[in-house]
Write a sequence for this structure.
């Protein structure tokens, strides 16, 4: 009694804490009061226990420890007085959780209070159970909650429904207990009960295939409820901005989406209603936009009519014109999901999507960039690439790499002509050369090498670009390679496709020397320039000047550059009679595949990637073979050469930087990486012959179980030395009983050809359970990365 009389009242405690000048003074006040509270608890004062616990709960809200009040909560809950129960249940919700064993001690008290018949006490017990109830408590008290679902009191029924939702989330096996009452609760006119019932049915359908089958019979009833809400309104007090009860509409639409997914009859029943909601909802307020967005998601997830899907895409197109950035972001994200299944409908909103590229908001412009790249096809590639190149010139630095890579990939896939392809790649290298993929230079040199009619055009364009800017290293590498191969065409001035360009031999050599001496040039770039100079020694007249430059780099600190200079100098001194044959132009390189329309390309993409570029013939290779024995013996030994090894890693290619077509690759075996409850994940591999550092992995998910796998998301990660790009999946549902598999394409760049390691994360819903799996794939075939 002494302790309680000397302690402060709650109002006085709050006032003293607020009057504290420093944090130390606040701690002193709280420690002193906590000592009084502990003393009162030890004395077992029943009259003041709830007051002391109330002060302790305030201290807990301020962030100070209050665990010593847990047992006092149990005592107050067991008290017959309502004032004690109220504080006790509040303390239990704040101080107890399922990680502590003490919360199990209140199970009997809750069970007794649920059967008392006093509404206020039942409400407190239900709130505590729904906030802190563990799976064990839910199993023990499920029958009591089921009885309360049909109580005459609307107050108790509403709280019982919400508690049932918590129980299903904690213990999905209890779903059978709550199936019968839900059918009766759907006839309720009380807003809170009906909204809670819809939420409960949604949880049951997501976690139990039996419940999903059971509630599909009630689709007409749900359609009737939603039509009533839309046409006549549910209740005026629940209308927001002129939209009748948007929370109830959204919840019903989510439930209809689950019930109509992969079910023809249910989808047919709700088609007319969805069209009515989509056309009659007011979009001037956020509440109406929320309802419309849920309607769009429902239309896209069920087996809706084609006209209804077009209407849904048009609604998202209107969202793109909204002034609210959040709504525009939601629209872009949704359109990106739909672009694979409804490409033509999304294409109609291409101008609006392109306008979103200019958004100052970084998240919006990134989403608009992803969607713009997904919309590129053979019919609009020139207009879209022009827009994307304009965006590349002004986009933030963090978007330049994605934009440049996307433009190069689209140009490689849909280029109408080789000249356009060369111009597009050159503009990207000029604008954002430091942000392009590692294989951009190899792709451009292969493209130019295979277009004999464009050699003069290409070398002039690249020479002009190099003369203006030598800071973009990929551009410099491609230009020096092209000048080394076709420098004689640069001096002829015979190209009619470009403006007249008078270039002197001294200017070409001076430019290459400038690249060699520039502090911005990387070692690899200097290697390109040195090789270009050596090749020009057979095409130009400045032989002595080139010899002097090569001899200077024999003492270079860079080992690789020094090795090249020594080898080239030996070529000048000991094998000068072979130099013209060794340094002749590379043979023509034909790029695999052909330009066809988009539909044929999508259906034959794997077959095209499997085609190998032709291997150079023996006469072409034999002319360059003598260089292999350059430092090993006299020239007479070269008259009987060994067969040339055409592998990309041969010493000849390393020495001269010559692109070489690889032999036809052996097929890479498929790999099964995951299997659980009928869901299987397989990986298939393709390495395009034109870009040996690129690996295409097709992830195929199949389902042989009896239930659909929904909300399927596959995410991947690779080490930092790799570059990974995930394409949009074919869907997010893997149908049951071996239905149409879901596929997703992964593009992995491996410039160092290092051993590939892949980490996958799968998230999906199966048989009402939310599943997440994270695993590493370390047994990838050697052919996938070597």
């Amino acid at each position: 009694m002494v302790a309680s009389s000397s302690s402060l009242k709650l109002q006085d405690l709050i006032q003293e804490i607020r009057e504290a000048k420093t944090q130390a003074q606040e701690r002193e006040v709280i420690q002193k009061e906590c000592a009084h509270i502990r003393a009162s608890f030890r004395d077992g004062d029943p009259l003041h226990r709830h007051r002391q616990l109330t002060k302790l709960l305030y201290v807990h809200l301020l962030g100070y420890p209050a665990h010593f009040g847990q047992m006092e909560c149990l005592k107050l809950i067991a008290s017959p007085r309502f004032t004690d129960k109220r504080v006790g249940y509040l303390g239990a919700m704040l101080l107890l959780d399922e990680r502590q064993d003490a919360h199990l001690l209140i199970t009997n008290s809750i069970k007794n209070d649920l059967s008392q018949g006093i509404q206020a006490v039942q409400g407190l017990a239900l709130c505590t159970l729904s906030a802190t109830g563990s799976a064990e408590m839910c199993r023990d008290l499920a029958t009591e909650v089921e009885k309360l679902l049909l109580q005459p009191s609307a107050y108790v029924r509403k709280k019982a429904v919400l508690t049932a939702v918590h129980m299903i989330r904690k213990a999905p096996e209890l779903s059978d207990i709550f199936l019968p009452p839900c059918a009766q609760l759907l006839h309720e006119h009380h807003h809170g009960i009906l909204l809670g019932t819809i939420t409960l049915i949604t949880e049951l359908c997501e976690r139990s295939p039996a419940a999903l089958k059971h509630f599909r019979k009630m689709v007409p009833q749900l359609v009737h409820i939603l039509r009533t809400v839309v046409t006549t309104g549910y209740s005026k007090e629940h209308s927001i901005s002129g939209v009748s009860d948007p929370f109830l509409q959204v919840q019903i639409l989510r439930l209809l989406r689950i019930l109509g997914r992969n079910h023809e009859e249910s989808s047919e029943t709700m088609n007319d209603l969805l069209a009515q909601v989509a056309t009659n909802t007011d979009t001037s307020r956020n509440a109406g936009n929320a309802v419309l967005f849920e309607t769009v998601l429902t239309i896209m997830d069920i087996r809706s009519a084609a006209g209804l899907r077009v209407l849904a895409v048009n609604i998202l197109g209107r969202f793109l014109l909204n002034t609210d950035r959040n709504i525009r972001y939601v629209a872009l994200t949704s359109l990106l999901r739909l672009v694979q299944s409804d490409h033509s409908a999304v294409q109609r909103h291409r101008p609006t999507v392109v306008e979103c590229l200019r958004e100052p908001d970084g998240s919006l412009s990134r989403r608009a960039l992803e969607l713009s790249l997904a919309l590129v096809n053979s019919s609009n590639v020139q207009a879209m690439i022009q827009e994307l190149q304009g965006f590349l010139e002004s986009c933030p630095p963090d978007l330049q790499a994605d934009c440049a890579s996307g433009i190069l990939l689209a140009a490689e896939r849909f280029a109408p002509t080789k000249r356009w392809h060369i111009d597009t790649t050159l503009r990207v290298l000029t604008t954002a050369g430091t942000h392009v993929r590692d294989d951009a230079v190899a792709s451009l040199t292969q493209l130019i090498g295979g277009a004999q009619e464009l050699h003069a055009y290409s070398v002039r364009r690249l020479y002009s670009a190099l003369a203006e800017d030598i800071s973009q290293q990929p551009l410099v590498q491609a230009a020096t390679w092209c000048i080394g191969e076709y420098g004689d065409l640069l001096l002829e001035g015979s190209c009619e496709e470009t403006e007249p360009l008078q270039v002197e031999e001294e200017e070409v050599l001076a430019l290459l020397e400038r690249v060699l001496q520039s502090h911005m040039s990387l070692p690899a770039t200097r290697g390109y320039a040195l090789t270009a100079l050596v090749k020009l020694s057979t095409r130009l007249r400045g032989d002595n000047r080139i010899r002097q430059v090569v001899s200077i780099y024999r003492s270079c600190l860079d080992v690789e550059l020094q090795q090249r200079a020594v080898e080239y100098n030996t070529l000048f001194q000991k094998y000068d009679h072979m130099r013209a044959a060794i340094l002749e132009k590379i043979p023509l390189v034909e790029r695999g595949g052909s330009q066809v329309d988009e539909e044929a390309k999508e259906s034959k993409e794997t077959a095209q990637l499997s085609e190998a570029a032709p291997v150079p013939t023996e006469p072409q290779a034999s002319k360059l073979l003598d260089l292999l024995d350059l430092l090993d013996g006299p020239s007479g030994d070269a008259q009987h050469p060994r067969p040339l090894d055409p592998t990309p890693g041969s010493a000849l290619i390393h020495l001269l930087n010559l692109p070489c077509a690889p032999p036809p690759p052996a097929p890479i075996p498929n790999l099964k990486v995951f299997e659980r409850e009928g869901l299987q994940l397989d990986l298939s591999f393709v390495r395009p012959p034109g870009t040996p550092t690129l690996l295409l992995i097709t992830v195929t998910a199949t389902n042989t179980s009896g239930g659909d796998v929904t909300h399927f998301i596959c995410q991947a990660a690779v080490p930092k030395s790799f570059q990974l790009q995930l394409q949009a999946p074919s869907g997010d549902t893997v149908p049951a009983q071996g239905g149409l598999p879901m596929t997703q394409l992964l593009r992995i760049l491996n410039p160092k050809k290092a051993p590939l390691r892949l980490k996958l994360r799968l998230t999906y819903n199966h048989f009402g359970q939310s599943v997440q799996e994270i695993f590493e794939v370390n047994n990838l075939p050697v052919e996938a990365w070597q």
